[in-house]
Amino acid sequence: MGKVLKLAKEISADQKIVFAINKTDSLPHITLGLGNYKKDELKIMAKKAAAGWLELDRFAEGKGYVMINFKKSSWLKKICMTDWEKYQPHLTLARFKERKTAIEIAYSLNQKARWSKTWVNRIALTEMGLNGTSTKIVKSISLDLGVVSEKIGHEQYRYSSNSIANFV
Predict the structure, then answer these.
(1) pLDDT score, position 1
(2) Which of 24, 44, 56, 81 minimizes the number of CB atoms within 10 Å of its CB?
(3) Residue 75 CA neighbour count, 13 Å, CB half
(4) What distances in angstroms separate CA 87 from CA 31, 43, 57, 145, 147, one per listed residue?
(5) What is the DSSP annotation of 119-154?
(6) What is the pLDDT of residue 165?
């Protein structure tokens, strides 16, 4: 997560922001589905696919958000919990108060793209916060080892791949 957190910090420095991803209350993640899920469903999801790669498509802007968009893949389709046709896999870096700022930053990042792909090795159920953020990991499971770690949470969670740590 270090590289995406560092990038979020860089692009939001000295800017008027609504939020930027961080280690405490706006966790980096790729949403795989939204809704009320049971913790046991995470084990079912983890059995559908082993760890895998996501390829960077481009940096994008939408309604003041700056995101890393990823290409759809057959691997991702196995674990996606939402309408595949409408789904755009992405990792939100930050939301800016002025959309113009977000557009300029996304354009600038595309001029100097930093990664081509990332390794995803776990999925998690997280509490949802404002602006589409994930605020707390309730339960996570490793895709490659099947190891479960559980934390107490609330009723509404999202499946997310929140260990987008190994950008290459």
Answers:
(1) 61
(2) 24
(3) 14
(4) 10, 22, 14, 27, 28
(5) EE-EEEEEEE-GGG-EEEEEEEEETTT--EEE----
(6) 34
**What is the per-residue pLDDT for 42?**
80
Q: How far apart are CA 118 and CA 111, in angstroms?
A: 19
The CATH T-level fold of domain 2-167 is Cyclic Phosphodiesterase; Chain: A, (3.90.1140)
What 3 state SS string does 45-94 have? HHHHCCCEEEEEEEEEEECCEEEEEECCCHHHHHHCCCCCCCCCCEEEEE
Question: 3-state class of 13 per DSSP?
Answer: coil
Q: Name the token pair of 21.
A: 């991803």
Which residue positions in the chain have pLDDT lower than 50?
A: 145-168
Give residue for tokens 């930053």. 105
How far the first Cα of the chain sits from its last, in Å, is 12
Query: What is residue 163's predicted lDDT score, i.e. its pLDDT?
Result: 38
Burial of 103 (0-12, 13-18, 19+ CB in 10 A): middle
Residue 155: per-residue pLDDT = 35
The full length of the chain comes to 168
Is 125 within 8 Å of 32 (Cβ atoms)?
Answer: no
- Reported as type and span, the H/E element at residue 18 is strand 17-20
How high is the pLDDT of residue 159?
41
